[in-house]
TrEMBL record:
It comes from Oikopleura dioica (Tunicate). Its main location: membrane. It is a multi-pass membrane protein. It is found in: Cell membrane. GO terms for biological process: sodium ion transport. This is Sodium-coupled monocarboxylate transporter 1. Belongs to the sodium:solute symporter (SSF) (TC 2.A.21) family.
Length: 598
């Protein structure tokens, strides 16, 4: 659909100036209360469970209700990136992002029906314990190390995000915001463990929804109502549902979102991420686990798709004639929504604070989940097999490890500042590292001929391929025609030093925010590979891992000689007769010996 300039832009009585509103006292009070309540929840569980075991600290004792788990799952994976990034995704690229609701449903089904029961039957603390049962300890440690690297990077991006929001509305230095967010998160995560994380998530999701609902309510009541705003949305070319292109270079198509999302980013997040699996295993049984996962899908679709879409429509209704980033009013697109919020709620002290508190809540949720799961993996996968300590000592050590990991995540936030938009940066990291992880577990469940060497080689090859394409995309960015960004208007802006976006006699375009110069047409042939949509990064890694794994499994010397009973998916195990299984009683004896060592 071609862009049509909204009629209202040509009828403006006066040009739109840069907003000058900022945080008020009431906004700071609301934000402070949210951070204080989050910290107090950590203190409560630290005191309540102070005499209990490390298993209660890391896994909640396996007795957490499915509904707080569902809220925690939803909050963890949609975070501040949803609050700041997803509505702007709809505003800038249209409605194709809504197809992620299908991706989430498929991933939830896979988690509830295939992956979850496999983890649950072994009563694991770390999901990577399964890889030692299936292969050996080395494979387990390789996968755990990759998870820690991936999560530290991801949490670094997430911590950086709300600091941008706070800087845009208050003038507080972005790095002061990073340390504020990280400090509160480390405090309650290290003190309270998994229970503190889960119950804080349940509180924080209310703040996240509250801030977005306030923006939607204000926008639809002030800008002509639902019918007019939807009409303008369509006139602006945003109502796009029919991009079914098979071109892998197109940023978002139905296929890249559904297939690329399942095999890459979200398949990993829902099925093979310690942060998700740890919560699944904190439920009492498989029935409660499935209840938590499917309830999570309702909240995930509601927040990431429905609420974010309507927020994006509100953003367009305000910025349809003057995009603040293109006009140079804000430094980056991740500040657009905070910039708008403080202006429309300048007469309602505390409401803008609620929105920014929602962004902080999302960050605290995701970061705390990541820190808690990394701490659990380091203790369970690296330390417990080689150290013999008392239960009380393990709990204290887990808290110090959580503190150290949190500081590392804050350090990586400095790298996140150079990765571009927070939504795409976060999803790129998860895709390129998560796709091969999902493939490793798929091979482990469904291919009985994959041995330890095959698993490691194919896994590292998948990661290497995905990282190579990602780095190449930073050197040779995709051409604008593949991103399919919607037209951003500046005709209604008050641009005092306006220069037309036209080249001079030397072919040089003016260096101004509203002018996008054409990219160099002379690009090497391999640059076409680097133009592949970020949504396919995980799929590239997934299929590289699966294909190499299947090919190497044809070599008899690389096949496993024996398999422990139960390590294959039941569907495969019933039909596979080539393995010499270790008897079940021997499995139980091995588990008993492991428990005695701990």
């Amino acid at each position: 659909m071609e862009f049509q300039e909204p009629a209202s832009c040509s009828n403006l009585e006066e040009p739109i100036n840069k907003f000058i509103s900022a945080f008020q006292t009431g906004d700071y009070v609301v934000l402070g209360l949210v951070l204080a309540i989050s910290a107090c929840i950590g203190l409560f569980f630290a005191f309540k469970d102070r005499k209990k075991s490390n298993e209660v600290y890391t896994m909640g004792g396996g007795e957490v209700s499915p509904y707080p788990i569902a809220l925690s799952l939803a909050t963890t994976f949609f975070s501040s990136i949803t609050i700041l990034g997803t509505p702007i995704e709809f505003y800038r690229f249209g409605t194709m992002f809504f197809y992620f609701s299908i991706t989430y449903l498929i991933c939830c089904i896979l988690a509830a029906e295939f992956f979850g029961p496999m983890y649950k039957k072994f009563n694991l603390t770390s999901m990577y314990e399964y890889l030692e049962l299936r292969y050996n300890r080395f494979v387990r440690l390789v996968a755990t190390a990759e998870f820690i690297v991936q999560t530290v990077f991801y949490v670094g991006v997430v911590i950086y995000t709300p600091a941008l929001a706070l800087e845009a509305v208050s003038g507080l230095n972005v790095w002061a915001g990073v340390w504020l967010t990280g400090g509160v998160c480390i405090f309650y995560t290290a003190l309270g463990g998994l229970k503190a994380v889960v119950w804080t998530d349940s509180f924080q999701i209310v703040c996240m929804f509250g801030g977005l609902f306030a923006i939607i309510g204000k926008g639809f009541s002030s800008n002509g109502g639902y019918d007019l705003m939807i009409s303008e949305w369509r006139e602006g070319g945003r109502n796009v549902w029919d991009d079914f292109s098979f071109d892998p270079r197109v940023r978002h198509t139905f296929w890249s979102i559904v297939i690329g999302g399942v095999l890459g980013n979200w398949g990993n997040s829902f099925c093979t991420s310690q942060a998700f699996v740890q919560r699944m295993l904190a439920t009492k049984d498989i029935k409660d686990m499935r209840k938590a996962i499917y309830t999570c899908w309702v909240f995930a679709t509601g927040m990431q798709c429905v609420v974010a879409l309507f927020t994006g429509i509100v953003v367009y209704s305000y910025f349809k004639c003057c995009d603040p980033e293109k006009a140079g009013f804000v430094e980056n697109k991740d500040s657009l929504l905070p910039y708008l919020t403080v202006e429309i709620f300048k007469d309602y002290p505390g409401v803008a604070g609620l929105y920014v508190a929602g962004a902080f809540s999302g960050t605290l949720s995701t970061a705390s989940s990541g820190i808690n799961s990394m701490s659990t993996c380091i203790v369970t996968d690296f330390l417990q097999p080689v150290l013999k300590l008392k239960e009380r000592t393990w709990m204290i050590l887990s808290k110090f490890i959580a503190l150290a990991i949190g500081l590392c995540c804050i350090a990586f936030a400095y790298i996140a500042a150079n990765l571009g938009g927070v939504l795409q940066a976060a999803m790129s990291i998860n895709s390129m590292l998560g796709g091969p992880t999902t493939a490793l577990f798929v091979l482990s469940f469904f291919n009985p001929w994959v041995g330890p060497a095959t698993a490691v080689i194919s896994y590292l090859a998948g990661i290497g391929m995905a990282v190579w394409v990602f780095v190449g995309s930073k050197i040779y960015p995709p051409r604008p025609e593949f991103s399919k960004q919607m037209h951003l208007e500046v005709s209604g802006c008050n641009l005092t030093n306006y220069e037309p976006c036209e080249p001079d006699s030397s072919g040089v375009y003016p260096d101004v925010p509203w002018c996008d110069a054409p990219m160099d047409s002379e690009r090497p042939g391999i640059a076409s590979l680097y133009e592949v949509s970020y949504m396919w990064l995980g799929t590239i890694g997934f299929f590289t891992t699966v294909i190499i794994g299947c090919l190497l499994s044809l070599i008899p010397r690389l096949r496993p000689k024996r398999l422990k009973e139960g390590v294959l998916h039941p569907f495969v195990e019933k039909r596979y007769r080539g393995a010499q299984y270790i008897p079940k009683c021997e499995n139980q004896q091995e588990k008993h010996e492991k428990t005695e060592k701990i």
